User: Which sequence fits this backbone?
């Protein structure tokens, strides 16, 4: 298995599977939405400010998040598709 070391203020996210049927059994369009849910797999250490202070990332591995996948980079590792995004592209943590 390949390993990634996530750098700076980046986050590796495993996206949730898209629903193909509604709760009522209606086939949903295959159009991807801009906002997507996923699980944080790995995080970088954070961003270093111009004063040399480390600003930590506000999410942790295992957090369920909502993020803007259009502002993220797609990457495939061992046949699994992930997104790498800046921590600022994470819109919310699902609690």
Assistant:
């Amino acid at each position: 298995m390949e390993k990634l070391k996530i750098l700076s203020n980046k986050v590796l996210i495993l996206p949730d599977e898209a629903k193909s049927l509604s709760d009522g059994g209606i086939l949903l369009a295959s159009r991807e939405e801009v906002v997507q849910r996923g699980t944080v797999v790995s995080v970088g250490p954070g961003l270093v400010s111009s004063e040399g202070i480390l600003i930590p990332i506000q999410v942790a591995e295992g957090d369920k998040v909502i993020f803007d996948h259009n502002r993220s980079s797609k990457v495939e590792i061992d046949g699994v598709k992930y997104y790498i995004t800046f921590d600022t592209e994470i819109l919310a943590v699902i609690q």
Residues 10-94 form a domain with the 10 Kd Chaperonin, Protein Cpn10; Chain O fold (CATH 2.30.33.40). The beta strands are 10-15, 35-43, 47-48, 54-55, 64-68, 73-77, 80-86, 90-94. The chain has one domain: 10-94. The mean pLDDT is 87.
